[in-house]
Amino acid sequence: PDTLLPSHLYGDETADTSFDSMIPPLHFHQMVVSSKDDELNVKKTISNQEITRAMAQASEILIGEIDLAQPPWMIESEQDYVLCVTGNAMAVIQKQKDQGLLDEDFMKNFLDKAQIFARMLPDQKALLIKYFQEKNIIVGMCGDGANDCNALKTADVGVSLSEAEASIAAPFTSKVQNISCIVTLLQEGRASLVTSFQCFKYTALYSLIQFFCLGILYFQGADLTDWEYMYIDLFLAFPLSILMNYTHPADKLSKQQPASALISFPILTSVIGHVIIAVGFQAGISLLLLNQVDWFVPCSVLHPGGLEEESVDGCYENTTLFLLTLFQYIGTLFAFNISKPFRKSMFTNFSFTFLSIFCIAVFADLFMFMDIPVNWRYLILYTGIGYVITAFTYEKIIVPILISIRRKFQDIQGKSMDD
Known about the structure:
Layout: E1 26-27, E2 31-35, E3 39-42, E4 45-46, H1 48-57, E5 58-62, E6 83-86, H2 87-98, H3 104-113, E7 114-118, H4 122-134, E8 140-143, H5 149-154, E9 157-160, H6 166-169, E10 172-173, H7 181-219, H8 226-243, H9 265-289, H10 299-302, H11 316-336, H12 350-361, H13 374-418
Parallel strand pairs: 6-7, 8-9, 9-10
Antiparallel strand pairs: 1-4, 2-3, 2-5
Helix pairs in contact: 7-9, 7-11, 8-11, 8-12, 9-11, 9-13, 11-12, 11-13
C-alpha cells in the first residue's frame, strides 16, 4: 500500500495492477542474486518481472562487495529509496555492530530506510525490535507462528494473527488473519489511555472541590450533612465516574497522539487551573455575594453552638455551596470528557448524559434545607452554568494554548543550546 512506500516508486499509475506490477523498481549497488544453476549480475535498476523471476529462482540473496563503512544509503543523493534486508545481511550488521565497527549514524540511516525485512531468524527479529526501541521508537509486531513468539514478547505491542503458539506470547490475539486489526487496536488503545487520564483528573478534582467547599463551610461555622456526603459520593461522583468510561473510541484514527505521562505539563496544568476556577466561584458566591443580600442570616446566628451542634445543615451557606458544587462536579465531568480526536462525543454516551442532568434537575431539590428566594435560586443556576462554560473553555481552549506556548519555548530553548 502507498502508506508504506513512497507513491512515486510505483512507476506509471496506468501500469498493470497485478501483484507483480505492485513491486516497486529497486536500485541495487553491486548486489548478486545467486541461484543453484547460475549467477545473475544485477546492475542499477531491475524491472518488476525480473525481480519476480530472480526471487523465484534464487535460493538465497547475498550482499556483494559493499563497503559497510560507506554504504549506498550514506551517499548524499536526491533520489529516494528504501532498503530490503535479509537475515544474512542482518547477521553481518549485527556482528559488525557488536564489534563497534558501525556508528550511530549508520544505524540511524539503516533503520530509517529499511522497510522490508525477510528470511530472518527468530532471534534476529527480536534483535531488530530492540534496535528500534533503542531509538525510542514504539514498536508493534504481528506474527502467526511459533518463530514469532520471541519478537512478539519483545515488542511494545504484540498481536498474534493466529490462535496457535503465537497467541500465548502475544498480549493481543486477532481473529482476523490480517493486519487490519492494528487500526482497531490503536483506536481502542488511545481511547483507553485518554479515558484513564480523565478518570485520574476527575478523581483528583472531585476531592479538591469537596475539600475547598468544606474549608469555606468550616470557616463560616457550617458543614455538609451526612445525606449530602452520601449523595455526592454514592449517587453522583461514583456512578458518573464509571459511566464516563463507556464512551466509544472515535471512528477514524487520528494522526495526533495523546499524552503518554500521567505527571506531565498538560495534566497538571488542567487540574491546577480547574481548582483555581472552582475555588473562585465558591468563594465568590459564598463569601461575597451571599453577604450582600438583606435576607441572609449567618450560620453563627442560626446555630450559636457552631459545629458542636448535632445539626448545622439549616443554614444558607450550606444550601448555597451544596447546590453550586453539584454544577461543579457535573461541569468538570463535561470538561474532562475529551471527545475528538480519540473518542466519540460524550452525548453519544446516553446513560452518562441522562444521569448528569437527572442528578441536578431532580435530586437537587431534596437538599433545599433553607427556603431561599427564587431570585437567589436563579443566581445559583446562572453561576453554575457560568462555571460549566468557564471550565469547558479552559479545558478545550486555554490548556491547548498553554501547551503550544510551552512547546514553542522548548523549541527556542533547544535551538539556543545547539547554537
